[in-house]
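Minutes, project check-in

Agenda point 3 was the complex the collaborators sent over. CS summarized: three entities, 1001 residues total, and the question is how they sit relative to each other. Sequences were read into the notes so everyone works from the same version.
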Amino acid sequence: MAESRIRVLVAKPGLDGHDRGAKVIARALRDAGMEVIYTGLRQTPEQIVAAAIQEDVNVVAMSLLSGAHNHLFPKVVELLKEKDAADILVIGGGVIPENDIPFLKEKGIADIFTPGTPTKKVVEYIRNNVEL
Amino acid sequence: MSEKGTLQELTNAKEKWTKGTVEKALSKYKERKEEFVTSSGIPITRLGTPLDLQEVDYLDNLGFPGEYPFTRGVQPTMYRGRLWTMRQYAGFATAEESNKRYRYLLEQGQTGLSVAFDLPTQIGYDSDEPIAQGEIGKVGVAIDSLADMEVLFHEIPLDKVSTSMTINSTAAILLAMYVVVAEKQGVSLELLRGTIQNDILKEYSARGTYIFPPSPSMRLITNIFEFCAGNVPQWNTISISGYHIREAGSTAVQEVAFTLADGIAYVEAAMKAGMDVDNFAGRLSFFFNAHNDLFEEVAKFRAARKVWAKIMKERFGAKKPRSWMLRFHTQTAGSTLTAQQPDNNVVRVAMQTLAAVLGGTQSLHTNSREEALALPSEESVRIALRTQQIVAYESGVPETVDPLAGSYYVENLTLEVEKRVWEYIKKIDAMGGAVKAIEQGYIQKEIADSSYAYQKEIEAGQRIVVGLNKFQVEEQSLQGLLQVDPAVGETQIKRLQELKKSRDNLAVQNKLADLQQAAQGNDNLMPYILDAVRLYATEGEICNVLRDVFGEYRPVEIL
Amino acid sequence: MELVQQARKGNRRALARLITLAENEATEAVEALQELYAYTGKAQVIGITGPPGSGKSTLTDKLVKELRKENKKIGIIAVDPTSPFTGGAILGDRIRMSDLCLDEDVYIRSMSTRGSLGGLSAATGAAIKILDACGFEYIFIETVGVGQSEVDIVKMADTTIVVMVPGLGDDIQAIKAGILEIGDLFVVNKADREGAHRVASELQMMLEINSEKVQWQPPVLMSIAHQNKNILEIVQEIKKHHSYLQESGQLVVKRRARIKNEVLEFVSKKIYQQIVDKVEQKGMLEKYLDKLLKKETNPYAVAKIILEKE
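CS then shared the predicted structure for the full assembly.
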């Protein structure tokens, strides 16, 4: 019997090579019963959006520790809008100062999960905000 | 240690103590945990006694500092002779700003420079590349050409200061730039002291700033070994790193094992390229993490020295004692620092500093309190530096060599770490070495498994992180964090445009063509890279030539 | 159906949505598939199977790039196992195909088996039809096979490629009877590794033993996918196989068997579901469970009673 599964794209935009967080989140989401498509490193916003659409994901979860979030995260949201996929939930995590969060939310990132956030919280957030 | 007769007495006495005194105490209240283990899963004994040292022969296992197997330290007088180098990793935005920070740190008593480069520079992209957008100057200084490098070291005498550069895939290029800056300062290359990280294998398994596949990367690395052996004899040509492997989530044992396995691969590559081991081994250096479990960390450093000494002497037949020495730089563990209650991080760093010093590090970088959120402000980096200085001048710890030696617990732990490290090395050897292990995704998977287990422990409350899952408070946003001006990107791009107008473009093209030809053959590439750098060829231009010839690395991802 | 029309016009989001509907066994999925069915039949379906670490994704990436030179539209379905404990999955095959991500005429979809045994998901067949009906001329299905259970791929693919790699444990053991029968093409990848030639010749030998039974002699090729070595040769063999299928009439035979199977499976699934639903509803089984546990009756008798009641 097939149930609907939440599908999440875990992406590493830009040049940042730190993937510990992305991999931990990917496993946690899998353990929570979700289907996780992991893009690997060095994804451009265009690649992330193309993958999100082809995979028909419910969520795009980006991890970034290089400080380039203010540039790259909004770009992804913008491109999703262009491709008629603005209904995909976009969230992010990594080394992101609190002060940058309002800007990111204003640009359409639904929420940011800063260092120390338990993976449970991310799982819950997704479950509460995705309608299958 | 003790005679057999007394050992038996001791065994009996310990049993009596356990069954009597301890049991009584346990019946009143249990111990805090079911199981006490280190990060590597090594069981932590309730009480160390001489019984734990039965396998430890002083002369065989420990010896004397400055002599094989170097368990107790690589120099005979250690910090009584000279304190470790206080070397804070720094760099951000433009070369001017970084230059300012370097001069500040030197004034504040730092004894060596450590350069952080931005991601485009680390991955061989000029600031005007589309993929560099948003990343310029963020995690380090942006260096597109020799021009930037000259600004970076403006008024910093390269014959007086030793410089460590955290650069890997593009190490040859940045080293070439440094060499040319020295030339222009009139400094003889024989006087240059410093290090380039130049450790591509850990990029593949843990850090991610790779460009080319393993084989040509090893070639570049061995080219550098050769070039420096002949021209820059005091330069440390590689900093074989475990720091990042640990940051990616490995255990202490894995940190040592995977690092030394990488080391083995480099030595083999250099010997295959025809170098005599004693010609380059003395300039190999290492880079480790100083993590939380103080005693495990000290045991780890001691075990690492012992294992590497054995590998160099017995496996590779090195004859010079210098070749057997594991000299290392340490950085306190960034991943242990929290965004919650950031001042606590100063305390964490202080303890990790202690671990590194008790472990005998040659140089140290201490992290700053807001590390989980941003690059450090001037004030925070000063506190980090002061932490080292307080340990150095006030704690008394550097006044004797290897003070924890002889501790029943620490000696036993050192032995345990050593055993487990050898097991891993054997396993990796059986796979064909570190390169093969990485190609099969073995090392990546071990790291990912450890990191996931660690996270689960935190979330289950089995591992306490103060301020995070216990002793939390209502957090205030930390203000005054360092922000890199996004205009840095614009500035760099403009500079590049100016540069390309003002240089001899024909000459640059010719040199790049020469480089391409050389890359297709077997020549040492350093002279060609130096030639291109002198004419202000950009880093991206040089890398693109090499990308064309070598191709790009395709990562293996095993989740 | 709006989605179907959009998808056929080239709207990738609509296409993706259709596949999701099929995966979730939504009622609209059947409607969509009914509408699409008339447009299927033109795509060449190529299955790629082999043990983990054999380089299937890299190989697929290179084969697709080669075929793209002919300007064909290509779909790729990468299937990975669902965790039996949590029902979740990490699907990482895309990583090795990231160059193809931005190619408008390539579509990559990762699917998890969602409890199906046999290496493919129940919806893979539907996904193939959807891609087929939307004009994709080659459809690659990539799945992990460990030598025993990936029979599904044969049912769905016109051409099945089995990828092997030297040095993964006991090579001779790995060449089990099952693999020999399902492969139309064998590729020994990572052929720069030690033992590659031995694996190839052992394979060759075992295939020759079977050779009287078959009309198509599966070739054994070597490749180093990440270096793009021998990719053209593999593509040529794929085409040769397709020609053989057409000329010998085997393609029709295969497709006939496939469609018959599909209908039967669909029917049996429905019947099974109907019966199980009724049994659950009426609590028919419940009342016998105690008796069964006390050994007062046996499962076969109970089954007979249930069936007779329907």
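Noted in discussion: The two ends of chain B are 47 Å apart (CA to CA).
Follow-up: revisit at the next meeting once the mutant set is ready.
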